[in-house]
Inverse folding.
């Protein structure tokens, strides 16, 4: 099994195609050389499932560490009401639909403000509450320092 990727662009969780027989695309039957021509991309390469797993783990870790962003109250309640939350906490919830892998949009309110980020749904609540507190403390400090 091989997967086709473009190593010159950041991996965002998807591959161009797979090749179960290591030679032909599973979807169009093209060889790697034919795919390079069809996609007008000479950078395409074939990689092993193990390499794709490494790329997925790196991408997932990056997404899971992305900072929280402020959202408005309307967005907070819209995403809470669009589907039943996948997990509820006090003043926080995971949106009912996965973003990617085991990462879900995670929304919370604190200090009369609303925030969203992506976190693993299995993250212990103590870890989430610590992240929220540290994030908000740093945000308030930067705002009062004028940064």
């Amino acid at each position: 099994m091989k997967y086709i990727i473009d190593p010159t662009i950041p991996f965002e969780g998807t591959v161009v195609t797979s090749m179960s027989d290591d030679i032909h695309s599973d979807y169009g039957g093209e060889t790697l050389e034919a795919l390079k021509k069809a996609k007008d991309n000479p950078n395409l390469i074939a990689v092993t499932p193990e390499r794709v797993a490494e790329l997925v783990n790196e991408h997932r870790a990056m997404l899971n560490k992305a900072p929280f962003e402020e959202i408005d109250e309307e967005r907070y309640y819209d995403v809470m009401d669009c589907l039943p939350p996948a997990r509820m906490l006090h003043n926080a919830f995971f949106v009912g639909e996965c973003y990617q892998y085991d990462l879900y949009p995670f929304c919370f309110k604190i200090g009369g403000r609303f925030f969203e980020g992506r976190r693993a749904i299995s993250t212990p609540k103590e870890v989430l509450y610590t992240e929220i507190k540290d994030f908000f403390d740093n945000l308030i400090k930067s705002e009062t320092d004028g940064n």
Summary: The radius of gyration is 20 Å. The chain has a mean pLDDT of 95.
